[in-house]
Amino acid sequence: MADGKNSFRHESLQDAKRIQDVLDSLAKGLIKGKLTFSDEDGEIILEPKGLLNLKLTASKDDSRHKLSVRISWRAEEEVVERKHLKVS
């Protein structure tokens, strides 16, 4: 866990099968509407709902190849009860 309770960051070397397992878990979490990320330092839970923004980028430069997947969304704002306006 990095940067307190509001963010999570993980970086490691994995083989293609393990990365597929992680992507499968992400897909299942997106379907359920709940993604949980945790390590020995803490946990963060995200709840994707509604329309999500998807950004895919791929690049190839000599021996370094890169694929990035970014998914973002706006959290539903709590509905605040509106006071009734009377005009006379």
Number of domains: 1
The gyration radius over C-alpha positions equals 19 Å
In DSSP terms (H or I, runs of 4 or more residues), the helix count works out at 1
Low-confidence stretches: none
Assembly state = single chain
Polypeptide structure, described:
It is a single chain. The protein is an alpha+beta fold and 88 residues long. The chain has one domain. Helix content is 19%, strand content 32%. It contains 1 helix and 4 strands. The chain is elongated and about 75 Å long.
What features would you highlight for this structure?
single chain, alpha+beta, 4 strands, 88 residues, two-stranded antiparallel ribbon, 1 helix, elongated
Helix and strand topology:
Elements: H1 16-32, E1 35-39, E2 42-46, E3 53-61, E4 64-72
Antiparallel strand pairs: 1-2, 3-4
